[in-house]
Specification:
Radius of gyration: 17 Å
Strand content: 25-35%
Largest sheet: 8 strands, mixed
Oligomer: single chain
Order of helices and strands: EHEHHEEEEEHEEEEH
Number of helices: 5
Structural class: alpha/beta
Distance between the termini: 42 Å
Number of strands: 11
């Protein structure tokens, strides 16, 4: 049996192994109800943006700094730290076996938000949002194969999964649906450094969070 690490898979390999089909959609409103931000939320969002910009102008922002300076504050502001959601960090995924090819895939996700109020199957929590982060100099598309691989296994447990790939500056949301074949939809790319698109970023995170309540 061949053992592969998810981080080394290309998008082409992920499509071949799991049968994923890629689609583009130009609107978040097809999936989510986006609500206006409050004045306080806008002020906190501006603070997150300014804090991150200071590190960005100083040079490379590491993957760990991206999680700490941008992702974590955004998740808190969007409501992900409140019950029934729980945040899991850097945990190994269950081995994914591709029987036809005698392949086993291993990996470790970055950040996973689960709902402790929703059980899809015994001992299985509902995945709210899976996040794959990269350092600021890496194109976010490089994180997509890992995100798809980690999400694929969980499509056995729920009909759809939200994913996010980010380098701190750019944010690519992905909506995955189970099916034969499974489909993932790439939504418009958002940017923390731009005022309007950063507001939409927080709106999307809040709306995904609200799906669990």
């Amino acid at each position: 049996m061949t053992i592969l690490n998810a981080r080394n898979l290309s998008l082409e390999e992920v499509h071949r192994l799991f049968g994923f089909q890629e689609q583009y959609t130009d609107s978040f409103s097809n999936y989510l109800s986006l609500e206006p931000l409050t004045e306080l939320e806008q002020q906190e969002l501006l603070q997150i943006r300014n804090d991150f910009r200071r590190y960005l102008t100083a040079g490379k922002v590491s993957e760990g700094q991206v999680k700490f300076l941008a992702v974590a504050p955004l998740l808190r502001l969007a409501g992900f730290y409140r019950y029934p959601i729980e945040i899991l960090l850097e945990e190994n995924i269950a081995d994914i076996e591709v029987e036809d090819e005698d392949i086993k895939i291993k990996g470790r996700f970055d950040i996973l938000a689960v709902s402790k109020a929703k059980h899809t199957k015994p001992q299985t929590y509902f995945w709210v949002l899976l996040i794959e982060s990269k350092n600021c100099q890496v194109d976010i598309s490089t994180g997509l194969p890992q995100l798809l691989t980690y999400s694929y296994k969980n499509l056995d447990n729920q009909k759809s999964v939200w994913g996010l790939v980010t380098n701190g500056r750019s944010y690519q949301f992905v909506y995955l649906e189970q099916g034969n074949p499974p489909i993932y939809y790439l939504l418009p790319e958002l940017n923390l450094m731009e005022r309007e698109r950063s507001s939409q970023l927080l709106q999307v995170l809040k709306a995904i969070c609200q799906l669990t309540l």
